[in-house]
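Hey, does this match?
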Amino acid sequence: MVTSRRPSLPRRHRRTGSAAAGRLFVDSSGWIALVSARDQHHAEAHERFEAAAAQRRRLITTNLVLAETHRLLLFRAGPQAARRVLDRLEASTLLTIEFATAAHHRAALAWLDRLPDQRISYTDAVSFAVMEATACPTAIGFDGDFVVAGFSLWRPAG
């Protein structure tokens, strides 16, 4: 179920310092936890997104992550709620949506080959490829696959 209280999404702020240092990739597990009050990680996700907004962090996700998020919300919360979440994410001026390219596809296949004994989804492999291409080593999410691939899951200091 989608929360009745609209979770805060970052608004546009002037960038300071290194762009890569301020970027956070957002996995579908992060988006789902943020908008679903019944998700076991909801409070933690809300805290992380609030901290990211306070620190003016730029967010990156992929169209495949959005597709995965939409599909999960479609069956958990219904078509209107799933669509509203897509609209809200698209309206966030600090969120960059990277669309999977042929280069991302090839890199994702390489990630799957690199981790043959892991149950890494194609969506996650494309996420790894995008994170690598954009020099973004850190994700907001609750999926251990990012750590297995050598990335870190972001936890705000304090």
The longest strand covers residues 58-62. The chain has one domain: 23-153. The mean pLDDT is 88.
